[in-house]
Amino acid sequence: MRSITLSQAVNEAIAEEMRRDETVFLIGEDVAEAGTPFKVTSGLVEEFGTGRVIDTPIAEQGFMGLAVGAAMTGARPIVDLMFGDFLFLVMDQLCNQAAKTHYMSGGKLNVPLVLRTNLGATRRSAAQHSQSLHALVAHIPGLKVAMPSSAYEAKGLMKTAIRDDNPVVIFEDKLMYQDKAEVPEDEYLIPFGEAKVLREGRDVTLIGTSSMRQVCEAAAAMLEADGISAEVIDPRTISPLDEATILGSVKKTTRAIVVDEGHQNFGTTAEIAARISEKAFYHLDAPVIRMGAMDVPIPFSPALEDLTVPTAEKVAENARRLVAGELIHAL
Amino acid sequence: MADAKTNTEDYLQMYRQMVRIRAFEDNANQLYLDAKMPGLTHMYSGEEAVAVGICEALEVTDKITSTHRGHGHCVAKGAAFKEMFCELLGKEEGYCRGKGGSMHIADQSNGNLGANAIVGGSMGIATGSALRAKMQGSDDVTVCFFGDGATAQGLMYEVMNMAALWKLPVIYACENNGYSEYTKTDEIAAGEITARAEAFGIEAHQVDGQDVLAVNKLTTDLVQRARKGEGPFFIELMTYRYHGHHVGDINRTYYRTKDEEAEWKTKRDPIKLFGDWLTSEGIASEDDLAALGEGVRQEAADAVTYALAAPYPDGSEVDMHVFLEKT
Ligand SMILES: Cc1ncc(C[n+]2csc(CCOP(=O)(O)OP(=O)(O)O)c2C)c(N)n1
Ligand SMILES: [Mg+2]
């Protein structure tokens, strides 16, 4: 099968959906000729024109609002938010307007829009360009949240998002845009709320979102050398969350570590860990471990930044201690 | 209080500060090209007369807020090369102890409230600083630097309204370099930029941002009036960035021509224009200026050498400064 980059996969998904449905349009800063700073949307304006691939002023709240209105009245906007950190500028339109319109209208109106943005640190971009803020929007009822972990997921989830009749926020890892994966030429969609088991194991379940999937896979490979068999799960969407797959796995392995790049406090790891503790408590042989980004603004200096994100070594170390039955709640 | 710069020493100080900014940026660019600088940075080269003309009209106690393209503001407000290069490289002795980097670089002790990686993100901060000055009866003025692209942010209109209502001592300095990222300003800004301020009854000026004397004269006047409670004011400074949007933006011909770049660099270079004026007025000889330039370049080279060898912060600093802890 052919391999393409995550960036190409997103591009293909948008192009295919724009060909299929003429109400789909793309709007954001430097999405047309420049193709975004990460070159994800290059070529789209040539095919679809400036009428459907729209460059905006630097007015995030404004174009987010336009997208909500357009979506409520018959269009399917894809909003490009250059950095996930800029979510803070669009929160009212996204969370007070888009998320609640269907409910507040008693089901009379709906908002089929996609907000695509990114997450991920270690790019030496400092505190305002490195955050992973998906937990913030996953907290809001009425928003769906997808977190592709490879080019394959990126394409399938994007196509599903565009066809969804509700607001969906997709977080791509900005360090993965050039990473390649096998992506079929034939059309496929990835349903929301279906986790993927990437590796089967007996001793511990490692749950990793976005690029933390690769961190978990690397940790599992290290653990194998120690005779520890780790199961690796990528939830793919955190809202909705595929509880059944996660709980089924933990009931088998009796141990779980949840790894995610958002801040650990009040984060995605906390939510998943809580559901496991609540619903699989009597199957557990050890407390569920959360591993998120350190609870500090992301520092610029490489000497500091690298300390803030979970690594495969640390995941493996925690797994070893869990399996060895150490009193890990003192972590 | 600063008068418009009118004596030899002041003129040479303005010239030196512009040359210092250019030298800082040339070195920063080289550090990027040599893969010695982490991340990316946005060069101020070409816009020196804006930062220098304005900051030379300010006192140390006056405040500024800066942008993602902030090295020039930082130098112009009085920062030293050593701490700046250390910051750029994420070293412990940097102004922000390596936590900020290029996009948050600032010499806080000289009244620089911070560079900002959120476009338009400092407009509230600058206006709030001016509100504090007024409330506390302090006569300092705050200058808010931002780009033409930032005029699209709604925050600007919320705070200009309040600044005008409450006559706050703030000067909004819009650096119009013709582009926001890869888009021409004409394509993203409706109407006249100065008219936006005028709609709130704010006195607005447009000035040649390549002419340091014109910038300095106008700003000196506005700062003095702002101190007396006649603010706020708005200045649109027409300028140009020589490099790409950031150091990695090398192939630019899809959004601006090489001819256009060459035109600005050869005919409208702020340092060359001011240097020519200084020599034609007999204020300095070409040799004087060359020697000054040489001295500055040496100072920059020494600071780079120092910063490259300087230590990174200790890992234990990673969770320091999340909150101010009482000791
Ligand atoms: C709120 C926000 N939106 C978008 C960006 C990405 N961005 C960084 S600089 C820039 C262009 C800014 O243009 P302008 O204000 O004219 O300043 P210039 O770069 O020309 O100095 C953009 C879009 C950002 N940093 N913050
Ligand atoms: Mg600009």
UniProtKB/TrEMBL annotation, chain A:
Protein known as: Pyruvate dehydrogenase E1 component subunit beta
GO molecular function: pyruvate dehydrogenase (acetyl-transferring) activity
NCBIfam families: PRK09212.1 (NF006667)
Positions of the Transketolase-like pyrimidine-binding domain: 4-179
UniProtKB keywords: Oxidoreductase, Pyruvate, Thiamine pyrophosphate
InterPro entries xref list: THDP-binding, Transketo_C/PFOR_II, Transketolase-like_Pyr-bd, Transketolase_C
Cofactor: thiamine diphosphate
UniProt cross-references to SUPFAM superfamilies, sorted A to Z: Thiamin diphosphate-binding fold (THDP-binding) (SSF52518), TK C-terminal domain-like (SSF52922)
Enzyme nomenclature, EC number: 1.2.4.1
Gene3D superfamilies: 3.40.50.920, 3.40.50.970
Organism: Boseongicola aestuarii
Gene: pdhB
Automatic annotation (TrEMBL), chain B:
Keywords attached to this entry: Oxidoreductase, Thiamine pyrophosphate
Pfam families: E1_dh
GO biological process, one term: pyruvate decarboxylation to acetyl-CoA
Dehydrogenase E1 component domain segment(s): 16-313
Catalyzed reactions: N(6)-[(R)-lipoyl]-L-lysyl-[protein] + pyruvate + H(+) = N(6)-[(R)-S(8)-acetyldihydrolipoyl]-L-lysyl-[protein] + CO2
GO MF assignments: pyruvate dehydrogenase (acetyl-transferring) activity
Broad class of enzyme this protein falls into: oxidoreductase
E.C. number(s) listed in UniProt: 1.1.1.-
Keyword Aminoacyl-tRNA synthetase among UniProt keywords: no
Cofactor requirements of the protein: thiamine diphosphate
Superkingdom of origin organism: Bacteria
Function of the molecule: The pyruvate dehydrogenase complex catalyzes the overall conversion of pyruvate to acetyl-CoA and CO(2). It contains multiple copies of three enzymatic components: pyruvate dehydrogenase (E1), dihydrolipoamide acetyltransferase (E2) and lipoamide dehydrogenase (E3).
PANTHER family, alphabetized: PYRUVATE DEHYDROGENASE E1 COMPONENT SUBUNIT ALPHA (PTHR11516:SF60), PYRUVATE DEHYDROGENASE E1 COMPONENT, ALPHA SUBUNIT BACTERIAL AND ORGANELLAR (PTHR11516)
Protein name: Acetoin:2,6-dichlorophenolindophenol oxidoreductase subunit alpha
UniProt organism field: Boseongicola aestuarii
